[in-house]
Amino acid sequence: MLKAVIVDDEPKAIQGLSWELTNFSDEIEIIKTFSIPEEALVYLNDNTPDCLFLDIQMPTMDGFQFLEKLNKQDIAVVITTAYDEYAIKALKNEALDYLLKPIDSDDLQITISKIKKFRSRALNSDQIEDILVNFTTSKNKKKITINTDGKLLFLNIEDIIFVESDGNYSTIFLTDGQKILVTKKLKEVNALLPDGDFFRIHNSYVINLSKIKEFLKTEGYVIMDSNHKIPVARQRKSDFLEKL
Hints:
The chain is α/β, with parallel strands linked by helices. The protein is built from 7 helices and 15 strands.
């Protein structure tokens, strides 16, 4: 059963599409509907349905702006619109398909078939990723696997200087000057790193203990090999000193 979310600023449009999906397909379950796109983005940050039916014309944020903020490639996006001029633009914005309002049941069935194929490919991709991640973890304790920009990166632990939080994202700073943005919270990245080598020194930072150059006790900062100055949270200071 495919899990679906509907985003449309018109309650009647949501009701109509919900009715179409419920009555013309037994393969989709509507798990959430939103008339306010900002609320939908908050929900989708923590939840990943199989498909998203997204209206284009909304007053506070149109569908294309919504897609730019969504940043999730594993959701099948179907644009719903009353204007067919948006069709090409919708597909260029990485939507899987589009449906013209009022929605035709035959068109809906075709779209559902596309969603199922999309999910099948995504599941196969996830299985391959799991195999690679598990292999890397079990065979090489000196590497971690990071999924970013549609590819898997196998990072040497010793190359990581520190990781910085940015809400639902994290940035990994490497010894060669690279900065890698990942769609994981800091606690998720921290869970991938070995406790003996890394320490969460602050709510916003995890550091590689071997990359500390200086500890400024009075100021409550560490200077890393990269010359980044990172604060030490008061409540973590004693634990940090024990690590040292």
